[in-house]
C-alpha cells in the first residue's frame, strides 16, 4: 500500500513563516518509505496557514525522492495559466515529483477574497483544468473560453514527467466522481468519508468513462491516522488535538453538507481511520486495500500535537512499510 503523509501547515500566533516541522516530517517520511507528502489549502485563517504553492517548492528543495502532492488546490480561485506555469515549474524543480490534486472549494469567504463568484466554481474548475492540461502537453495552445482566452500560448519549461504529472480531484457527489474520471487520474476522498459508503462510491467512480487524456483511475483514501504501541497510546496522543480540529471544522463547513460528520464519537472516528497499535493499523491498511484503495493519505498531526508525537507515528508506519 502506498502511503501519503498529510502535512500540518498551520502556523502559530506570532510565528514568522517557517516550515521546519513539516520539513522534518517530510524527510522522515521519505526515509520511512512513504510515497508522498501531501498539502492542503486554506485562506482567511486567523491562526495562520502556510501558502500551498510556495510550501510545495520549499519541501521539494528539502527532500530528494518523495512525491510532492496536493489534496487539494482550490482550483476556481486561480488564473489557470499562472497555476499551470507554477505547478509545471515545481515539477521541474523537484525532478518530476509533482502530483497535482484539486478541489472545488466551499468557503464563501475564500471566493469573495479572490473575487470569484461561487456559483461559477464548476465552470471555472473545468475550464481551468482543460487549459492547464493542454499547456502541460501541447507545443502551443489557443483557447477561447468563458473566463480565459489565450492565443499561441506555451510553457517553457514544461513539466518533467511525460506526458504530464498525475491529476487528482477530491469530492463525494456523483458529479465530482464523473468529472474526476473524465478530467483527472485519481479520486481523493474526504477524511470523514464513511467506510460504509466507500465501496459504492469507488465502484461508481470506476464505472465512469475515462477521458481521452486520462492516465488511469486510482483511488486515494484520506484517513485520520496514528500508529503507536497500543490503541490506548494512539488515542491519548491524537484525540484531544483532533477534537480541536473538528470543532474548528464545524465552523468552516457551516455551508457544507458534511458538517455534522465532525461531531462524531471517538469510536466512529476510529472505524473510518487508520488508528491504533501497529497490528491494528496493519489490519486497517489491508482492509482498505481489499476495498480497492490504491493509496492512503494519513493525517497524523492535527494542530496542537507535539512534533515528537508526530515523528514517532511516522516511524511506526515506516515499520509497517518494510518488506
TrEMBL record:
Boundaries of every Luciferase-like domain copy: 15-294
InterPro entries: Luciferase-like_dom (IPR011251), Luciferase-like_sf (IPR036661), SsuD_RutA_monooxygenase (IPR050172)
One Pfam family from the record: Bac_luciferase
Keyword terms of this UniProt record: Flavoprotein, FMN, Monooxygenase, Oxidoreductase
Official protein name in the record: Luciferase-like domain-containing protein
Organism: Kribbella hippodromi
Taxon lineage: Bacteria, Bacillati, Actinomycetota, Actinomycetes, Propionibacteriales
Amino acid at each position: 500500500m502506498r502511503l501519503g503523509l498529510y502535512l500540518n501547515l498551520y502556523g502559530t500566533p506570532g510565528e514568522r513563516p517557517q516550515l521546519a516541522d513539516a520539513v522534518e516530517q517530510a524527510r522522515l517520511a521519505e526515509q520511512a518509505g512513504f510515497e508522498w507528502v501531501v498539502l492542503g489549502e486554506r485562506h482567511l485563517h486567523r491562526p495562520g496557514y502556510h501558502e500551498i504553492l510556495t510550501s510545495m517548492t520549499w519541501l521539494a528543495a528539502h527532500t530528494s525522492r518523495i512525491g510532492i502532492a496536493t489534496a487539494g488546490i482550490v482550483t476556481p480561485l486561480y488564473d489557470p495559466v499562472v497555476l499551470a506555469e507554477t505547478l509545471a515549474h515545481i515539477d521541474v524543480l523537484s525532478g518530476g515529483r509533482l502530483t497535482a490534486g484539486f478541489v472545488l472549494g466551499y468557503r464563501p469567504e475564500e471566493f469573495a477574497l479572490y473575487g470569484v463568484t461561487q456559483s461559477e466554481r464548476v465552470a471555472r474548475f473545468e475550464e481551468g483544468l482543460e487549459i492547464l492540461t493542454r499547456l502541460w502537453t501541447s507545443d502551443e495552445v489557443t483557447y477561447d473560453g468563458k473566463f480565459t482566452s489565450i492565443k499561441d500560448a506555451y510553457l517553457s519549461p514544461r513539466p518533467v514527467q511525460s506526458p504530464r504529472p498525475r491529476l487528482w480531484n477530491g469530492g463525494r457527489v456523483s458529479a465530482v466522481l464523473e468529472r474526476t474520471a473524465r478530467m483527472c487520474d485519481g479520486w481523493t476522498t474526504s477524511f470523514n468519508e464513511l467506510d460504509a459508503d466507500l465501496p459504492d462510491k469507488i465502484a461508481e467512480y470506476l464505472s465512469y468513462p475515462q477521458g481521452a487524456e486520462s492516465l488511469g483511475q486510482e483511488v486515494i483514501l484520506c484517513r485520520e491516522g496514528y500508529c503507536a504501541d497500543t490503541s490506548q497510546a494512539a488515542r491519548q496522543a491524537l484525540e484531544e488535538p483532533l477534537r480541536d480540529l473538528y470543532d474548528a471544522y464545524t465552523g468552516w463547513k457551516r455551508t457544507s453538507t458534511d458538517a455534522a460528520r465532525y461531531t462524531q464519537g471517538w469510536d466512529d472516528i476510529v472505524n473510518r481511520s487508520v488508528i491504533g497499535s501497529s497490528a491494528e493499523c496493519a489490519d486497517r491498511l489491508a482492509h482498505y486495500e481489499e476495498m480497492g484503495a490504491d493509496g492512503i493519505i494519513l493525517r497524523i498531526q492535527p494542530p496542537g500535537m507535539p512534533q515528537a508525537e508526530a515523528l514517532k507515528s511516522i516511524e511506526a508506519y515506516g515499520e509497517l512499510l518494510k518488506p
